[in-house]
Amino acid sequence: MELGLSLGDSSKPFGFLSKAREITTTTTTTSTNGLQGFCMALGINSSTSARGQQRTHSHDEDDDDDDISEEDEDDDDETTNGGPSLDPPVQLNLLPLSPVLADNASSEGGSPGTAARGFDVNRLPATAVGEEVTSSSFLMDFCMFGGGKKRDSEAAGNDAVEAERASSRASDEDENGLSRKKLRLSKEQSAYLEESFKEHTTLNPKQKVALAKQLNLRPRQVEVWFQNRRARTKLKQTEVDCEYLKRCCENLTEENRRLHKELQELRALKTTNPFYAQLPATTLTMCPSCERVATTSTAPPPSKPTDPTSKTTAPFPMSRPPSNTLFPFPPATPDHPHQPAAS
DNA sequence: CCTGGCCGCCTCATTACGTCA
DNA sequence: TATGACGTAATGAGGCGGCCA
Q: Residue A283 and which of A35, A206, A295, A333 are 20 to 30 A apart at CA?
């Protein structure tokens, strides 16, 4: 499913949206190759007066207006957050529904592209005009139960049951007001939010409102989704980092074990072969700039002043392949003389 | 220029719900 | 059918920065 939203002036427009094909027809549903497209103008508020005063949205903004208490306030906040705005009205282009959606729609007996599955925003205008909407969460609920994951796997015969559950639940909410605690987002909604998240992990108020409109969610829900998504990303990254550090630790442990073994071999060699015993001791020095480690002879100090060039940077005297962390310095350059770290 | 209040957004920790084995 | 594990939507607390009087 592709949805396109063309904003008048977005500081950070969705890149993936630009890839979407545009439906040129505006303000009415139109049939394109048997699929439906919908485009509507959305007036983003531009008043600078006190909070909650301005309401210049298009008709479907009423859905948010009907939201209760906190959510309603949130919507106000988000539409006014940017302060004065001279942006042109936002044009929302809803692109043709995917075959999956169309199939579902037709299986429900409705016209393709107009059935309630997932976030079928095409329901919105008719709903706003002809029906009374208690809240956008009602719409969400209805859409969720009308479609979503279960719908994909269940036979069409369950439609009536699902619809009944939806209406029952909705009526419960009507009675209790705030009984709704949690809604599962549909696959399409999640996928679309995921796409947005790939573009940018945070949203400005305009993008949030636009996304909410497009997905038939409250801006607060979009906001919460992005917050939770960032948290999940961070958690996952932490796990990856932890795994990486664990592997580093294991490698270092193995390296340490190997070095111990090599040291024992060298000691054994020293006792059995006096030639190696006459070789100067070897220590490791680290270049402070590039942090590379090299072997350096620590032969007894010469009688005359130390000549910098006398310092040996030869590889290990033994035929030992250097590890990743132990290798001779690269050739010194004027701007990189490879001075050992001052201790 | 400084300051305090307000607001919006963030992270973080936690809760609560839906789903699945 | 009941249950526990898991994923995730939602909530609340607290911090921070911007704006404004």
A: A333
Q: What is the torsional sign of CA A166, A224, A12, A98?
A: negative
Distance in angstroms: CA A46, C1' B4:
28
**pTM for this predicted structure:** 0.44
Chain A residues 79-98 with Cβ under 7 Å of strand B are 80-81
Say how far apart CA A46 and CA A54 lie, in whole Å: 8
Q: Are A55 and A65 in contact (CB under 8 A)?
A: yes
pLDDT in tens, A219-277: 889 999 999 999 988 888 888 888 888 889 999 999 999 999 999 999 998 888 766 66
DSSP SS3 for A38: strand
A226 touches strand B (CB under 7 A): yes
Per the structure, the residue whose CA is closest to nucleotide C19 at C1' is: A83
* Higher-scoring residue by pLDDT: A293, A343: A293
Residue among A225, A191, A212 nearest A63 (CA): A212
CA separation for the pair A215, A189 (Å, rounded): 6
Nucleotides of C under 7 A from a protein CB: 8-12, 20
Q: Which nucleotide across the nucleic acid strands is nearest to A225, CA versus C1'?
A: C9
Q: How far apart are CA A120 and CA A115, in angstroms?
A: 7
The integer distance in angstroms from the CA atom of A77 to the C1' atom of B6 is 13
Answer for A120: CB within 7 Å of strand B.
no
Task: Give the rounded distance of the alpha carbon of A204 from its chain centre.
Answer: 15
